[in-house]
Amino acid sequence: AAVVLIGNTREETTQTDGGRTLYIKGINAKGVWERTLASSGSDYDTAMTPNADGSYDHVSVPIVTADSEHVMAQSWWESDGTVHVSRTLGVKKYGGGSFESRRYLDPKNGDVYICDSTFHPNDALEGRERSHLRWKFIREGKSYYVGE
């Protein structure tokens, strides 16, 4: 069943407001998951300067996860605006933690959109390891050769 679920997974994204807003619609056999993220640092805003400790303040927005949990999400742009990073905070399922996603176009083929998703457990110090999954999506109407 997992192969069918993964094979039928799609993701649609739309940027607005100079990249500050990113709408994401995930579609698979289980259903549809829609969310809108408010991204920091999308327009090289000069106000986006680090705090004294080197960290940044990011806008938090409430979202509902694919598992119907109400959590907070933060997102921002990295690598000169080519990588979108989002993080959900306050996840209680799976023993608690946060999900981080990094979305970008494959530098070798701009028709391939990659989403690296990592779950960071709250109890990582107690030996629970992070889990990671890489999704690759092909632009609609394009084909992708997987051979050598």
Topology overview:
Layout: H1 2-7, E1 10-16, E2 21-28, E3 31-40, E4 60-64, E5 70-78, E6 83-91, E7 97-106, E8 109-121, E9 131-138
Parallel strand pairs: 3-5
Antiparallel strand pairs: 1-2, 2-3, 4-5, 5-6, 6-7, 7-8, 8-9
Give keywords.
148 residues; mainly beta; 53% strand; globular
What does this structure look like?
The chain is mostly beta strands. Helix content is 4%, strand content 53%. Strands 1, 2, 3, 4, 5, 6, 7, 8 and 9 form a nine-stranded mixed sheet that branches. Strand 5 and strand 6 form a beta hairpin. 11% of the residues are buried. The N terminus is likely disordered.
> Radius of gyration in whole Å, from Cα?
16 Å
Percent helix, as a range, is: under 10%
SSE succession: HEEEEEEEEE
Major sheet size, sense and barrel closure: 9 strands, mixed
How many β-strands, per DSSP?
9
- Shape estimate: globular
**Global structural class:** mainly beta
- Mean pLDDT, rounded to whole units? 82
Report the uncertain regions. Answer: 1-5
Number of helices: 1
Determine the N-to-C terminus distance. Answer: 28 Å
Strand content: over 45%
Put the structure in a nutshell.
This protein is mainly beta. It has one helix at residues 2-7; strands at residues 10-16, 21-28, 31-40, 60-64, 70-78, 83-91, 97-106, 109-121, 131-138.
